[in-house]
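INTERNAL AUDIT FORM
Audit reference: QA-55
Scope: verify that the stored structure record matches its stored sequence.
Auditor: D.O.
Record contents follow.
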Amino acid sequence: MSSRNEILKRVRAAQPTLIPMPADLTSTAAGDVHKFTEVLQGIGGRVVLMEPDEEVPQKLKELFPSANRVVSSIRSLEAFFLHDHAQLDHHSLEDVDIAVIEAQFGVAENGAVWVTEQDTIIRVLPFIAEHLVVLLDKASFVADMHQAYQRVAYDAYGFGVFIAGPSKTADIEQSLVLGAHGPKSMTILVRS
């Protein structure tokens, strides 16, 4: 017997006993805004629950009083909407203080939001601004990534990403730095 066959024989003999997969990994629990808030705050983000009569532009002024340039991919935010996004040179977004986008849903277990290219209109938008603000409906939370993957599995999109919290690194002298290679903050505005 060749040494190759001897090795393969030993590997086959040393295999662990197979155990069956759980019947159903998916959760039926609804997403919880409180769990989402707790997790997102733990990774450096924040959640702001908006009152039904509050307007987004006013809330932005309240939360970011010194912001100069605010842009948005949301048409209803007319004052901030990037009307020329199809012809826009992405480098012209380098001085954006706040980018406002809308997410399709939030994941309670990890504080992430699901965003597609249709939500951002420019892929770089959520990553180039100093501060990222994401609008999310209170009814759009899922409990875990199993539910999240079920939701995105059959959608038609060219680009999609889960975003959780501001960018961060601890590579610099073992000290946590927020906003090292992306937004310094991530704020989720939850609408009723």
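Auditor finding: record pair retrieved intact. The first helix runs from residue 3 to 13.
Action required: none
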